Amino acid sequence: MSLDLQLSGKTAIVTGGSAGIGLAIAKALYSEGVNVAIASRNQERLERAVSEIQSLPNTNSKVIAIAADISQAEAVERVVNTTLSQLGQIDILINNAGSARAGSFLELSDDAFLDAWNLKLLGYIRLVRAVVPHQKSRRDGRIVNIIGGAGRTPRPNFLPGGTANAALLNFTRGISKELAQDNIRINAISPGATATERAETLARQNAESRGITVEEIKAETIKAIPLGKVVKPEEIAALTLFLVSDLASSITGTEILVDGGQTPGV
Q1: Which superfamily does CATH assign the domain made up of 11-193+232-258 to?
Q2: Mean pLDDT (whole number) for 190-200
C-alpha cells in the first residue's frame, strides 16, 4: 500500500527550523508540497537552511525564514503574523525550538531553569495560543510538540530541560481535549538521543559536569539504548509527517517515544 499523505498545499510553521530535528522536519514537509515558515534566532543559519530546503526537488512549495527569539512574546506574534501575511494560512504548527543546559543541580543557577522554561515551555504554549484561533476558524489544525524523553524519565544532570518537558507533556495532553472540539489535533514526539549539533553540546556539558571525556559520555549513551544506536533527525521528521496527515486523524493527546527502546515503563 502506498501512503498518500495529502499534505500538498498546506502551510506549516516550524520553530527551531534552521538545524537538527527542526530542519529535517522542514525539509520533509517541503518535499510533500507544504509551504513552510521556519523560525530561529540566528539569521545566518536561517539563510543556510532556506538554501538547503530550496535545493530539494521542486514541489512548487514556498519556504520563508523568520528570525525570532521564541522566548519573547512579541516574537511569537511576529512569526504568526508574518506567516499569515506571506503564506496565507497556518494548517500545521511544529513546536521544536528549545534548549536547556545540562549540569549538576548545585552548579545550575535559577537562570538555567528560567531560560529553559521561558524558551521551550512558554514558547510552545504561546505559539499554540497564537495559532489556534486561526485553525479554529477553519475547523482544522495539526500541532506537534517535539518534547523529549527527560520529561518522562528524569535525569539528574538535565533538570531544567526535564522539568520543561514534563510540563509540556501535561499541557499537550490537557489541551488536546479542548482543541478536539474544533478538529484540531495536538500530539507530542519525545526523541531520545538524536544525532544533532544540540546533542553534541549536551555531551560536552555533561562531560564537564562529571569530569569525564565526551567519548565516555557517548559510550554510556549508546550502551543504555537497547537498539544500540542514536536516532536520526529524519526518523523524527517521518513520524511528524504521519501525525500531521489525515492518516492519523484519530490520534490526539498522545506522546510517541522515539528512543531505541531506552525509556523504561509500561
Answers
A1: NAD(P)-binding Rossmann-like Domain (3.40.50.720)
A2: 85
